[in-house]
Target: Regulatory protein, luxR family
Amino acid sequence: MRELASTTTGLLVLVFAAHAEALVRHDPAGLAEVASRFEEAGFLLHAAEAAAESGDRVLFGQLIGACEGARTPALARTSLVPLTQREREVAVLAARGLTNRRIAESLVILVRTVDNHLSHAYAKLGIATRGELVPLFADDLAGRG
Model:
């Protein structure tokens, strides 16, 4: 691949070569970079696969939604467990910056219940902080979800 990439001016050959090299090196940062390059080129399924292989669940979460249910071996190994409707609702409100107390008041539930929903959502999404919710729910935050 490297030799072919050196003899061509095509963007995709270079990105595929970088993808192969990052896979061989087991390079998560390189795979995340490849995912971004595929995304920029409009190859979202390849981008999602590279993100899955990188282990970057936030990037994977952003890209997989655009793949309209497509399944590949790489994607199957990194499937996101879907959130329940309530977990999603709580996660979107948290991503908007509401405190757990405000979320509880808004949904007329206990603060402890909000804590539980967020904990389950974080575990399913493979994240650890509220800030990591923002890119995952960008469409909801922009009013498109």
Observations:
- DSSP finds eleven helices and no strands in the chain.
- The two ends are 40 Å apart (CA to CA).
- The mean pLDDT is 85.
- The CA atoms of residues 65 and 142 lie 16 Å apart.
